[in-house]
TrEMBL record:
Coiled-coil ranges per UniProt: none
Name recorded for this polypeptide: UDP-glucose 4-epimerase
Task performed by this protein: Mutarotase converts alpha-aldose to the beta-anomer. It is active on D-glucose, L-arabinose, D-xylose, D-galactose, maltose and lactose.
GO BP term, example: galactose metabolic process
Taxonomy of the source species: Eukaryota, Fungi, Fungi incertae sedis, Zoopagomycota, Zoopagomycotina
Any one Gene Ontology molecular-function term assigned to this protein's record: UDP-glucose 4-epimerase activity
InterPro entries from the UniProt entry: NAD(P)-bd_dom (IPR016040), NAD(P)-bd_dom_sf (IPR036291), UDP_G4E (IPR005886)
Enzyme class: isomerase
Keyword Signal on entry: no
PANTHER family given in the database record: UDP-GLUCOSE 4-EPIMERASE
Protein EC: 5.1.3.2
A cellular-component GO term for this protein: cytosol
Length: 343
């Protein structure tokens, strides 16, 4: 029987947090992997470790997605690219409000350049990293994909605009297929402890801030709001293990094999965990106390945001496997082994 040649996947932003975990799963599943990353928020050390975990090599190009000639050269060097997974971009909600033009340029123009390069190379399958941020302030939780999209910050609007661009492009060319994954709150790390989240400067998100507080790198955690209408008064989010999230991209690639058109799909665990539950789970796995105080609510935050995951189960045949304890244990292993991240 003829052996099917391995499919080549181009991964933009593959050196980053979610990208590196996805590269591991792709390599373990037998795909050839080509990474494009300008290292704006990553280092090549993550990719070296991806190769170490999997025992397989990948191709890396230090290229900015805004650099069309350089991106075209990557496509030319790999003429058999099957699909692209597009992670590259800027992702800090607060920063996007202070430098919106930069966010529109990198995220929206970057995506447009990528699509044009894909078209020129005849590559018409895309998995895109969208975000639950496109829902803005959803009226119900769990949030279905049919909920209104009304992002409340420039970062969220870049994600929504890119979704519109991809949808319009798929409508214009019926040979195009795309899955747009709306991630909820990815946390955790690879169980090897070799790769994980390595935020630069003060973390914006809860989980890395808690880890750094335990390590003594931050004095104490401020819990934004203790008076929400939730079981313990703190905010509830849909935390999802980054390895589960990475595997959803492989499920999306499988769907691209035979389903035409464009699909948006929530990727969450479907379970709501409160901020205090996460803090206590981290205390449990680390055996250390988290110093915290209850502070004022953060403007723009909601009491509870949880994914309705039925579409992902139905359309991708995927669901998250890991619970909060596993997310925290794996995150803590990564932190302990790498208190300074990759540096
Ligand atoms: P990350 O910052 O770790 O990864 C993004 C990668 O893109 C980095 O390696 C960075 O160096 C690279 N990059 C940035 N600008 C680039 C450019 N112009 N050209 C080439 N490479 C560039 O972030 P992440 O957490 O891994 O997120 C990956 C994607 O998922 C992003 O698009 C983000 O918006 C989206 N997302 C993340 C979350 C989250 O909470 N982490 C949630 C929802 C959606
Ligand atoms: C989680 C909970 C905070 C920090 C954001 C983006 C979203 C997606 C994921 C990219 C909330 C509380 C936080 C702290 C706290 N990213 N918190 N003290 O806001 O749910 O989602 O990241 O697409 O788009 O909006 O995540 O980790 O910031 O907050 O009490 O120091 O933790 O109030 O209840 P969020 P988060």
């Amino acid at each position: 029987m003829a052996v099917k040649p391995a499919q080549t996947i181009l991964v933009t932003g593959g050196a980053g947090f979610i990208g590196s975990h996805t590269c591991v799963e792709l390599l373990l599943a037998g795909y050839e992997v080509v990474v494009v990353d300008n290292l704006a928020n990553a280092s090549t050390e993550s990719l070296r470790r991806v190769e170490h975990i999997t025992g397989r090599p990948l191709h890396f190009y230090e290229v900015d997605i805004l650099d069309r000639p350089a991106l075209e050269e990557v496509f030319a060097a790999h003429p058999r690219i099957y699909a692209v997974i597009h992670f590259a971009g800027l992702k800090a909600v607060g920063e996007s409000a202070s430098m919106p033009l930069r966010y529109y340029e990198v995220n929206v123009v970057g995506a447009q350049v990528l699509l044009q390069c894909m078209d020129a190379a005849g590559v018409k399958r895309l998995v895109f990293s969208s975000s639950a941020v496109v829902y803005g302030l959803p009226e119900t939780s769990p949030v279905p994909e049919t909920a209104a999209t009304n992002p409340t910050n420039p970062y969220g609007r870049t994600k929504l605009f890119i979704e519109h661009i991809i949808r319009d492009h798929c409508a214009a060319d019926r040979n195009w297929q795309a899955v747009m994954l709306r991630y909820f709150n990815p946390i955790g790390a690879h169980p090897s402890g070799e790769i994980g989240e390595d935020p630069r400067g003060v973390p914006n998100n809860l989980a890395p801030y808690v880890c750094q507080t335990i390590l003594g790198l931050r004095e104490k955690l401020r819990i934004f709001g203790g008076d929400y209408a939730t079981a313990d008064g703190t905010g509830v989010r849909d935390f999802i293990h980054v390895v589960d999230l990475a595997k959803s991209h492989l499920a999306a690639l499988r769907r691209l094999e035979d389903a035409p058109g464009c699909l948006e799909c929530n990727v969450g665990s479907g379970v709501g965990y409160s901020v205090l539950e996460l803090v206590h789970a981290m205390e449990h796995v680390s055996g250390k106390k988290v110093r915290y105080e209850i502070a004022a609510r953060r403007p723009g935050d909601l009491a509870c945001v949880v994914a309705d995951t039925r579409r992902a189960e139905r359309e991708l045949g995927w669901r998250a496997q890991h619970d909060l304890e596993t997310m925290c244990r794996d995150m803590w292993r990564w932190q302990q082994k790498n208190p300074q991240g990759y540096s």
